[in-house]
Amino acid sequence: MASSMATIRLDENDKRQFEQVVNSLGMNMTTAYTVLTKQVIKNQGFPFGITADPMDNPEIRARIIEDLKETVAYADSSEAIYFSNDEAAAKLGIRV
Fold first, then answer.
1. I need a labelling partner for 65 at 20 to 30 A (CA). Which of 6, 36, 59, 82 fits?
2. Predicted structure pTM score
3. What confidence score (pLDDT) does residue 87 get?
4. 34, 42 contact by CB (below 8 A)
């Protein structure tokens, strides 16, 4: 299998720390990147969770705002029923 060169740019401190960790695992940086590459290909994604702040998504942000508006409108309506924390816990079967 032919190989090709890939160049990446890292923060100097991050590179040093990364190299120390992978060396402690008995690998060099090339082997570590190869392992990551193979896992990304195998999993069709990263082998660990990468998440974004949901508020960065305009659709999610709009849904949250809409839900909050509905909650406030309900709380302001005559249909709203309020309980103390102890009453709510009792209704939910939670011991406090």
1. 82
2. 0.50
3. 85
4. no
Domain ranges of the chain: 1-50, 54-92
Q: Return all residues near 80 (Cβ < 8 A) that are at least 6 apart.
A: 74
**DSSP 8-state symbol, 56:** G
Q: Please tell me the distance from the alpha carbon of residue 37 to that of residue 47, in angstroms, as a whole number.
A: 10
Token pair recorded at residue 46:
């990263």
Report whether 31 contacts 22 (CB < 8 A). Answer: yes
Instruction: Tell me the range of 26-30, 58-62, 65-69, 90-94 where mean pLDDT is highest.
Output: 26-30
In angstroms, the CA 48 to CA 51 distance is: 10
Which tens digits make up the pLDDT trace of 40-70?
999 999 888 877 777 788 888 888 888 888 8
Is residue 18 within 8 A of residue 10, CB to CB? The reply is: yes
